Amino acid sequence: MMHHRPNIDWMLKDLAESVPQTRHVVVLSADGLRMAQYGTDHDTADRLAAACAGLQSLSTAVASEFPHGDGRMRMVVIEVGGGFFYLMAAGAGAYLAVLADEGVDPGLIGQRMRDLVARIGAHLTSPPRVDGLVG
User: Fold this and answer.
1) Which of 76, 88, 71 is nearest to 27 (CA)?
2) Of 23, 51, 56, whose CA–CA distance to 37 is shortest?
3) Contacts of 51 (CB under 8 A, 6+ apart)
4) C-alpha pair distances (Å), 63 with each of 31, 84, 90
5) Dihedral sign, Cα of residue 89, residue 40, residue 37, residue 1
6) What is the rounded average pLDDT of the residues 113-120?
7) Does residue 5 register a pLDDT over 70?
8) Going from the N-terminus, what domains does the chain have, and what CATH number goes with each?
């Protein structure tokens, strides 16, 4: 029988409902697989997760230019016409992504994302992949 990750969707809902203008919340693995979501359909969440894997890779390349840093991405923020995209490291091999409308309070969303990462700790840790299967 396959081991299932604890359901963390309610925690994502809590983040979305506590920050006005939040549109989508997705948790993904480092290799771009959707682990949990709130406020979006599977197709949108899968597209966001795949894009996040690329962003994580790019941010690691940029981080390597800081000689005294640890080389790890902590948060990426992208502002586009219509809103913001946030990507935050959330445990070993996992990331938290949020899409929000342009009226969102950037300080509040950043704080709520940090709070969520701290709250669910081990739940967001992606198990190692073995022969294409997630443990």
Assistant:
1) 88
2) 23
3) none
4) 18, 21, 17
5) negative
6) 87
7) no
8) 9-129 (3.30.450.30)
